[in-house]
Automatic annotation (TrEMBL):
Protein name: L-lactate dehydrogenase complex protein LldF
Entries under InterPro entries matching the protein: 4Fe4S_Fe-S-bd, 4Fe4S_Fe_S_CS, FTHF_cligase-like_sf, Helical_ferredxn, LUD_dom, LutB/LldF, LutB_C, NagB/RpiA_transferase-like
Spans annotated as Disordered: 471-491
Pfam family, one: LutB_C
Amino acid sequence: MPAFPRAAAVSTRDGGLRANLRHATHTIRAKRAAAVAELDDWERLRAAGAAIKDRTLRHLDHYLVRLEENVTRAGGTVHWAADAAEANRIVTDLVRATGEREVVKVKSMVTQEIGLNAALAEAGIRAYETDLAELIVQLGDDLPSHILVPAIHRNRGEIRDIFRDRMAQWGRPAPEGLTDRPADLAEAARLHLREKFLRSKVAISGANFMVAETGTLVVVESEGNGRMCLTLPETLISVVGIEKTVPTWQDLEVFLQLLPRSSTAERMNPYTSMWTGTTAEDGPRAFHLVLLDNGRTDTLADRVGRQALRCIRCSACLNVCPVYERAGGHAYGSPYPGPIGAILTPQLRGLISPLEESLPYASSLCGACYDACPVAIDIPEVLVHLRERVVEGGEVTVRGTRTVIKPARKHAAERALMRTAGWVLDHPAALRHGQRLAARTRRFHPRRLPGPGRTWTDSRELPEMPAESFRDWWARTRGGPTATRPREQAS
């Protein structure tokens, strides 16, 4: 993927994409605001969610061991995956062991993060997405562009055409004369998926939360497809990031209030599925939990950046972000788009390419994302912190290995400019002469900067230089201290 500015330059010129995004995000934003306004204690809930997450992350090693013990005690099997390759290998081997060559999947961000579908396809195993939006993305040979609504960039007409053209290649074809009415599209998806639910013997899921106290996993969703995947197949494999752990059921209660209102603007999710191991009478006969690191412990080592691991994947930050609304999710080059992706992806992957280096700059720092976040992640703070890492470089941990990140060459001019500005500001006489020279030559100042400065003036105008500095104006009109006096006297 190209760096964010290049990708965004293409997507922002797509009028249809921008119209789809604007309509969808504004609608979700308004509904969420109304749902949140119903609770007088929303800010206290928000603070409680942040505190629970921080406490859990501080003692994550303890809670993960407890989770493993309770999952195992309940009849499940726990696997540990250090990175994407190991997780894909574990899941592929588990599916092969069943003798099956197809699986149904619950919507899962973490399986997108590790590229599981592609890994299964290489092994001759076909994965069927069962979430409606994920189904649209899969049939359209597309990529998700939103955390909650992966096909947010598609309108109804496009979805109808995708169903007509591609459904038959994946199973039951779309009905004849399919229209773009939402009810008709949903019915076409329902008929297409039903045969897969009834036929598939293996399911793959993620989880929204894992309760260490009992070894219980929780999936919240709005369509019922998750419930079908979690109960009908004989084998269930869940791939979950280690940060999704919560200590107790009492802690879970806080997040089951925060998540629905922040994501779908509902008081309660239509389907909240919970399972603890296996039972002889109901559900899958075998349950496997794959606990994924993939950069999470490296992120945990960063005292500022670790707050990104609080994220509960609600997408509230995307729906209020002016950059996401115009650029769309694909420009972020990651399954995690928007403000949270701009801080999570560079930390999970490391600052290893121009894409990751550019993501912390994919923001205006307006702060709307922080106000919307139900677990109070200070995304602007982390963005500035990551920008500093990009510019300054230094020693960091990437995939468990200490490495040195070299400062990006493109920021050399910026660093030189900042050092020069620091020297001038530390020498009053030089500052005074510079201000007077700039004022007297203001007629010749360009409207746009040359060289590296062009990037700055591509999106903003240079401020007009006043005829005199504030110091000189003050000395002339108020008779105050002149600019020639020492700083300690002038102050």
